């Protein structure tokens, strides 16, 4: 999706509508030609801040009530600081082309497994973004929204300093898009792949975000709110001991029952059915134990979580094998 933004003509002050990727702007009123460029010949744009402080606080209080957070968080949590900042992101759009060859395994109705060879050609538009600064532990690494009013960056806008280079960003974008092309083929065992990334647009985009810091029982936490959509992007919150207790109790009960049924199923029904029950029961128990152990703090966004969820692709492979 292309971005369209408005500039003021340096001669007559008229509005000039310019699309992302354009290097020249022609005023429709006085026909003055202006060159568009940014730092290191990278165009710099920004989204307009739409969400005000009141709406950001409303989003925060709504977020306090959802999920497995402490049940009294909304009443006990105290907002200590709120401010908005424009975070810089590299945005790279390109057309991805690729050829991927390989094979998948297929099991027929008799239980026989065979290789199914596949060759897939990919041609698709891709959009990649990555934060261009060291934003600390605020949990925002990529753009989640590409819709909004695009304007030149306000002169007095609070921003984070750009700490990565254009060349590094382009390399990262090409590598990530190449991985997406190969993944798009949906081939389990790849024997050959060749990808091409044809660049279209590259911009440094500043995105407005509200950062809110709050206190809960003498401990500080934070969350971020999208300055355009009003959605919570990331945050840390205290967990609830009741949810932890329910998780371990339910997980132990359900997981234990399934594991207990696995051995009789292997012996009297079907070995694969028993193995299936054993795997599912073990996953449920381990998931419940992980939440019980690390659920004292809930994290959302691009933050490394103290416990990881189930690896769905890996689980599918195990269950298919079972």
Question: What key attributes describe this structure?
Answer:
322 residues, alpha+beta, 3 domains, eight-stranded mixed beta sheet, 6 helices, 12 strands, 30% helix, 37% strand, flat, disordered N terminus
Structure, described:
The chain is α+β, with helices and mostly antiparallel strands and 322 residues long. The chain folds into three domains: 33 residues; 184 residues, no CATH class; 80 residues. Helix 4 packs antiparallel against helix 5. The two termini are 43 Å apart.
The total domain count is 3
- Please report the distance between the alpha carbons of the first and last residues: 43 Å
Query: Which percent range fits the helix content?
Result: 25-40%
Q: Give me the Rg, rounded.
A: 26 Å
Please give the count of helices. Answer: 6
Number of E-type strands = 12
Shape: flat
Structural class: alpha+beta
What does the largest sheet look like?
8 strands, mixed
Low-confidence runs of at least 5 consecutive residues? 1-5, 35-39, 308-322
Outline the secondary-structure elements.
Layout: E1 4-8, E2 15-19, E3 24-26, E4 33-35, E5 43-47, H1 53-64, H2 73-76, E6 78-107, E7 113-131, E8 150-151, H3 166-184, E9 189-216, E10 219-226, E11 232-238, H4 241-269, H5 271-294, E12 297-300, H6 312-321
Parallel strand pairs: 5-9
Antiparallel strand pairs: 1-2, 3-4, 5-8, 6-7, 6-9, 9-10, 10-11, 11-12
Helix pairs in contact: 4-5
How would you briefly describe this protein structure?
The protein is α+β, with helices and mostly antiparallel strands and 322 residues long.
């Amino acid at each position: 999706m292309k971005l369209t933004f408005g500039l003021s003509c340096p001669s007559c002050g008229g509005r000039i509508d310019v699309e992302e990727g354009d290097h020249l702007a022609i005023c429709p009123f006085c026909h003055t030609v202006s060159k568009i460029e940014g730092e290191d010949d990278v165009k710099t744009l920004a989204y307009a801040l739409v969400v005000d402080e009141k709406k950001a606080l409303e989003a925060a209080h709504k977020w306090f009530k959802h999920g497995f957070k402490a049940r009294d968080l909304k009443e006990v949590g105290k907002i200590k600081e709120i401010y908005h900042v424009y975070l810089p992101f590299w945005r790279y759009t390109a057309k991805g082309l690729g050829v991927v060859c390989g094979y998948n395994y297929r099991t027929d109705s008799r239980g026989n497994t065979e290789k199914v060879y596949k060759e897939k050609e990919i041609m698709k538009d891709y959009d990649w973004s990555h934060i261009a600064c060291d934003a600390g532990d605020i949990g925002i690494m990529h753009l989640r929204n590409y819709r909004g009013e695009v304007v030149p960056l306000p002169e007095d806008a609070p921003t984070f300093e750009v700490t990565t280079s254009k060349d590094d960003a382009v390399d990262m974008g090409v590598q990530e898009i190449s991985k997406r092309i190969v993944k798009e083929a949906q081939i389990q065992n790849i024997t050959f792949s060749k990808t091409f990334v044809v660049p279209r647009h590259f911009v440094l985009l500043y995105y407005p975000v509200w950062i809110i810091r709050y206190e809960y029982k003498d401990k500080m936490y934070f969350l971020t709110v999208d300055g355009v959509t009003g959605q919570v992007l990331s945050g840390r919150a205290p967990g609830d001991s009741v949810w932890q207790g329910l998780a371990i109790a339910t997980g132990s009960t359900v997981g234990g029952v399934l594991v207990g049924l696995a051995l009789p199923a292997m012996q009297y029904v079907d070995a694969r059915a028993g193995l299936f029950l054993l795997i599912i029961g073990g996953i449920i128990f381990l998931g419940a134990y992980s939440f019980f152990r690390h659920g004292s703090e809930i994290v959302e966004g691009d933050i490394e979580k103290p416990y990881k969820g189930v690896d769905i692709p890996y689980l599918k492979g195990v269950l298919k094998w079972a």
